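Per reviewer request, we include the raw input and output of the structure prediction for the construct analysed in the revised manuscript.
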Amino acid sequence: MNTELLERLQAGGELFISNAVLDGAFLLRACVVNFRTTQADIEAIPEIVTRIGRQADLELRPNALK
């Protein structure tokens, strides 16, 4: 799911998130390097990730598990 979520977030253009692999787990991570990034930008990350993740889950989860 995280791989799909990463692809959708990057394609959506609202934010850029990268990944890391820790103890074999594929994780999402925010890495802020742009000096124009604001506190509001940082605070928006959880909402954007949650919204796109829910959409992906609805589309990918088998009907029997919904």
